[in-house]
């Protein structure tokens, strides 16, 4: 069987932004015969996510992430259909997902690395298994629940940076559903601001590219900030933390503003910000969703119900064709997506 696949062509420089030329499309053939425990899958959707920037480096800086290898097939979140199987856990016609799905149009995978999913959980929107009803949704929901300390009736204000991204767009909605009276999103374009307020029910949105963030934040959060869901780091986070209330909580989810730099994760804070955190007894704990997988099944059920009932709206940016993986990845790293960046694989 002839398949197309994406391999790692080159790595960006130490402090370099990724470029589409870091990836290369190849034609290859798959052996038709399966070994025991294997399944042949047809790829339907692939995901590109900020954490993948770390996998482009020789050293990912994180013990739970392996680097992509030069001239080898790239992998990440994927969902697809079992076409034939010699494993006990899945049969022909099953919809399956994996964190380590090869960027190929078809692939032979070990059944142990595949998770069978029920299309009814997402009303047939199978790409949602990579986002709102997958690891992204889990990160948003469990991040808010485990580290946000949102209390109904406590008149809390939440701020989300990277608010129009896959995770931020859901985190803000969860904050609102869990009882925050104000949810303010920070993002990079007017179009994203409109989507947050009009489509997702955020109280307000700030365009950091056009507006003075400290001034606008004061206007939008007159009672200060109690919970900060941080996807971005850097200057944006210093600004938000400066306006946080005593006993507030920072959910440290990601630091995309720092990912193209050669710095440790999480990157060091300025002295001024460290002093603010101490003086105001603000907790700032790194949130790693992989440490909370015992709660995943219940959380995915809840996310599914929220999405199906319309309480949580899902935004996606979909690109067609495996040949656009590199473009889609680089666009996502520059904020070109609204919601989850998905690549639909055309067969």
Automatic annotation (TrEMBL):
An example molecular function term from Gene Ontology annotations: 15-oxoprostaglandin 13-reductase [NAD(P)+] activity
One GO BP annotation of this record: prostaglandin metabolic process
Main location: cytoplasm
This protein's name: Prostaglandin reductase 2
Subcellular location field: Cytoplasm
Superkingdom to which the source organism belongs: Eukaryota
Pfam families: ADH_N_2 (PF16884), ADH_zinc_N (PF00107)
Catalytic activity: 13,14-dihydro-15-oxo-prostaglandin F1alpha + NADP(+) = 15-oxoprostaglandin F1alpha + NADPH + H(+); 13,14-dihydro-15-oxo-prostaglandin E1 + NADP(+) = 15-oxoprostaglandin E1 + NADPH + H(+); 13,14-dihydro-15-oxo-prostaglandin E2 + NAD(+) = 15-oxoprostaglandin E2 + NADH + H(+); 13,14-dihydro-15-oxo-PGF2alpha + NADP(+) = 15-oxoprostaglandin F2alpha + NADPH + H(+)
UniProt KW keywords: Cytoplasm, Lipid metabolism, NADP, Oxidoreductase
CDD domains in alphabetical order: PTGR2
Gene3D superfamilies for this protein: Medium-chain alcohol dehydrogenases, catalytic domain, NAD(P)-binding Rossmann-like Domain
């Amino acid at each position: 069987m002839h398949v197309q696949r994406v391999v790692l062509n080159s790595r960006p420089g130490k402090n370099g932004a990724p470029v589409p030329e870091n990836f290369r499309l190849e034609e290859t053939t798959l052996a038709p015969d399966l070994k025991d425990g294997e399944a042949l899958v047809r790829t339907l959707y692939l995901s590109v996510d900020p954490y993948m920037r770390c996998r482009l480096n020789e050293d990912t800086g994180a013990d739970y992430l392996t680097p992509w290898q030069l001239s080898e097939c790239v992998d990440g979140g994927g969902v697809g259909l079992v076409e034939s199987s010699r494993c006990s856990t899945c049969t022909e016609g099953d919809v399956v997902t994996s964190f380590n799905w090869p960027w190929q149009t078809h692939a032979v995978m070990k059944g142990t690395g595949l998770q069978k999913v029920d299309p009814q959980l997402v009303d047939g929107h199978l790409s949602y298994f990579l986002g709102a009803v997958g690891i992204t949704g889990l990160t948003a929901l469990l991040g808010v629940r485990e580290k946000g300390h949102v209390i109904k009736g406590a008149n809390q204000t939440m701020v989300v940076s990277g608010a129009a991204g896959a995770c931020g767009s859901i985190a803000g909605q969860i904050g609102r559903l869990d009882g925050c009276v104000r949810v303010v999103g920070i993002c990079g374009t007017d179009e994203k601001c409109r989507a947050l307020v009009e489509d997702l029910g955020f109280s307000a949105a700030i365009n950091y590219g056009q507006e003075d963030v400290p001034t606008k934040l004061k206007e939008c959060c007159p009672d200060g900030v109690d919970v900060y869901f941080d996807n971005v780091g850097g200057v944006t986070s210093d600004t938000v933390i400066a306006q946080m209330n005593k006993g507030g909580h920072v959910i440290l989810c990601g630091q995309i503003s720092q990912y193209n730099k050669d710095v440790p994760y999480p990157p060091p804070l300025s002295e001024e910000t460290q002093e603010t955190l101490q003086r105001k007894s603000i907790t700032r704990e790194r949130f790693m969703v992989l440490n909370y997988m015992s709660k995943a099944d219940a959380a995915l059920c809840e996310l599914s119900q929220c999405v199906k009932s319309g309480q949580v709206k899902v935004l996606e940016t979909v690109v067609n064709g495996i040949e656009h993986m590199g473009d889609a990845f680089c666009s996502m790293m520059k904020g070109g997506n609204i919601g989850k960046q998905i690549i639909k694989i055309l067969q």
